[in-house]
């Protein structure tokens, strides 16, 4: 399946085995918060909690800039579009600032922010937060740097990122390769999760998307993989602004409560860093 890390803005505490995301009521935040992405150039940024985030103090979302620039930090006002392009992008200034404060590589942050902005347009009721995508990306592949590689300008790792062979050994499921999976993994015998967000071929066949308009839906391309992951999470969790929806979404990505808690903690850490 797909596995994803994320970082919400303000820090929340996991309560019990179900880890609830709670709204801060007395100045104390308990749960998951998400920072905003920003606003389109020329518009005032309006702090708006992103999906999966209950913000006591909202971090501004990415601001939208010219055609291919990334938008600001908060979801509200984060739609970056020009007359020539309807695809949202995070503002360059927002990306530069958040990359510096969170330590997320700027190219990866562009992919997470743009995916969040795109989902906000097509599925506004999901409330997906960029910190959730970023947390998953961090856990799955170190934002596309696993194995010592790095992301190129096109959003693809300079060296392909493959998960372990799913050969039934070491606690892994046994999944035979198919003609389709072999084209992504190069392994004619066993399936592997692929790319920065670690999609399996069967999952990619359903959710894969060409997010950057380069003519190919490629799981090795973080732009495509981040948007596909966003759609997957929204489908699994519905409204990610609440504890139940957010938990269900991330657990669908990886059916392991420890994984979900790791994503929650990472997302909260990113949210805090972005808000500092």
Structure description:
- By secondary structure, the protein is mostly helical.
- The protein has a domain at 38-151 and 230-275.
- The protein is 36% helix and 3% strand.
- The chain has a three-stranded mixed sheet with strand order 1-2-3.
What is the ordering of alpha helices and beta strands?
A: EEEHHHHHHHH
Major beta-sheet overview: 3 strands, mixed
Strand order of the largest sheet: 1-2-3
Overall 3D geometry?
globular
Approximately how much beta-strand content do the residues carry?
Answer: under 5%
**Which blocks of ≥5 consecutive residues have pLDDT under 50?**
1-31, 39-85
How big is the Rg? 17 Å
Structural class given helices, strands, pairing? mainly alpha
Give the mean pLDDT: 75
* Share in helix: 25-40%
> Got a strand count?
3
Outline of this structure?
By secondary structure, the protein is mainly α. The protein has helices spanning 92-102, 106-122, 130-141, 179-185, 201-207, 222-237, 243-253, 257-275; strands spanning 38-40, 61-64, 72-73.
What key attributes describe this structure?
mainly alpha, single chain, 276 residues, 3-stranded mixed β-sheet
